Structure formats: C-alpha cells, structure tokens
Amino acid sequence: MDWDEIIDGQLSGLKRILAMLVAMAAIGAGGTTLRRRAYYGVLRLLRPAESAARRLVIIAARGLVVALPPRRPARPRPKRRSIYVRPGGTGIVVPYGTAMPDARPPSRTLGFRLFDPPYRIVLRRSPPRTSVPRIASFGWDGPSRSPGPTPRSDTVDTTRLNLRIAALARALEDLPKQALRFARWKARRAAGLIPWRWPLRRGSIPGMPRAQVMRRNGEMAEILDDTDYFAKMVLSADTS
Questions:
Q1: Rounded to a whole number, what is the largest CA-CA distance in the chain?
Q2: Continuous segment of H or E residues that includes residue 161
Q3: Which of 114, 140, 222, 234 is the most exposed place for a label (fewest CB within 10 A)?
Q4: Strand, coil or helix: what is 222?
Q5: What are phi and psi of 236, to 5 degrees?
Q6: Contacts for 67-73: CB closer than 8 Å, 24+ residues apart
Q7: Is 6 helix (H, G, I), strand (E, B) or coil?
Q8: Could you read off the pLDDT of 92-143 as tens digits, one per residue?
Q9: Burial class (CB in 10 A: 0-12, 13-18, 19+), 99
Q10: How far apart are CA 60 and CA 180, in angstroms?
C-alpha cells in the first residue's frame, strides 16, 4: 500500500474543500459577521473537513518514533498571600504601589484539535409544548400574557469560525508538524505520562450526520470515509 500516494490524494482534496470554506466564509473581506443561514452552511462543511484532517494526521504519523526529553524536577511554588474580603471593596489585596494587571487579551490564533470532540449532552430546561399549564401566582384576575420568543438576529459573529478555518489551513499546510504532535502524544501515552484515550470518537464521525452536506458535496463524504478507514487501520496496527 502506497501511503504517500494516499496522503497526497486526500490532502489535495481537503485543500479544495478549504478553498471552498474560505470562499463561503468570505474571510478575505475581513468581515466578522455572516448571515445565519450562510454561517450554518459553512459550519456543516467545516466539521467533516476537520474530522478528515484529524484522521489524515493519524495516517501521516504512522511509524514516527519520538524520544521524549527527560522530565524536569518540579519547581517549588512560591507562597501566595492570603486574600480577604473588605466590606465595600473588591476583595483583592495587592502590595502598595502595585498596579492591577490588565485583562488577558483575546487570542487571535486557535490550535488545531487532534482529537474528536466528545458527545455533547443537551439538557432541555424548558417544558415541552404538550405539558399542562402551571400556576405562577394566585389572586390575579387580569389577562394572562406569556412572553413571546426572543427574536434572533439574522447575523452571527464569525470570529471563532474564522479561527477554526485558519487552524485547519495551518494544519493542512504543515501536515508533518501535526503528525509530530500526534507522535509525541503517543510517546507520552506509552510512557504512562498521560491517561489512555482513543483519539477518534466511537460511533458516528463528527460532521457525518449532516446528510445534506454529503449530498451537496460528494467529495467531502468520500474523503471522510477514506480517511476514517485508513486512520482506524493505522491505530489498530499501533495497538495490536
């Protein structure tokens, strides 16, 4: 099996998907908002592209052996001064003449995630529409008014979306660097420095349940299927 040919073919396909994402998100225009429908359209294509890129990193990291540096001795931590709450104050005590540090500026870059995100469990807090009405107060004879749903804005902030697309672009431009990251993680796991974790999600692939994206872009579905198959083959060979 020619692994280099497989990697080159999947990488070129993902770069075409990336160019499509950049055009859809209009990053070159420098905008920070996008129409809600267009935003979710980009997100439905970005998720399977990220999943395929993670699996391509696993394929590229096959056979890499990384020697971990010796562990440094733990440095003694300095003692912290006690903090007490002053009535009417902020509750933070600093030495006289020391200015309060400014808030940490928001990061302009986002690292590429090497592992699939876990399943999200969404708890439904609002009662279903089929539930019976509940008494809120007694002694009120006026007309009952229920607040209507809050209207949603038609535009969505795309700051984090642009950061994710930029992280995907950096990962595809420097695939050996991402493969070296994954090889270092395997070395730390083999040395017992970090707990064991399966890098791929069990069950459905992130982004795969979006069937409408797969119908519109058959290349994305094919890339995701192929990279998932070969990545699981590589992981099975490493754990066997």
A1: 79
A2: helix 159-173
A3: 140
A4: helix
A5: -65, -35
A6: 67/187, 68/184, 68/187, 68/188, 68/191, 68/193
A7: helix
A8: 554 544 555 554 555 577 889 999 988 776 666 665 555 555 555 555 555 5
A9: exposed
A10: 9
Instruction: Give residue for tokens 């090889």.
Output: 183
What is the per-residue DSSP string for 50-114?
Answer: HHHHHHHHHHHTTT---PPPPPPPPPPPPPPPP--PPTTS-S----TTPPPPPPPPPPS--PPP-
pLDDT tens-digit series, residues 167-223: 999 999 999 999 999 999 999 988 888 888 889 988 888 887 554 455 556 888 889
C-alpha pair distances (Å), 165 with each of 23, 129, 162, 169: 11, 38, 5, 6
List C-alpha distances in Å: 220 to 12, 14, 143, 153, 174.
12, 8, 55, 30, 21
What residue type is 151 in one-letter code?
P
Give the DSSP H/E element, type plus range, for residue 229: helix 218-239
Beta-carbon contacts of 191 under 8 Å, excluding residues fewer than 6 positions away, are 68
CB distance 189 to 115 below 8 Å: no
Q: Which token pair is 170?
A: 């950096």
DSSP 188: H
112 in Cβ contact with 171 (< 8 Å): yes
The first and second tokens of residue 166, run together, are: 């930029």
The model carries a pTM of: 0.72
User: Which residue type does 33 have?
Assistant: T
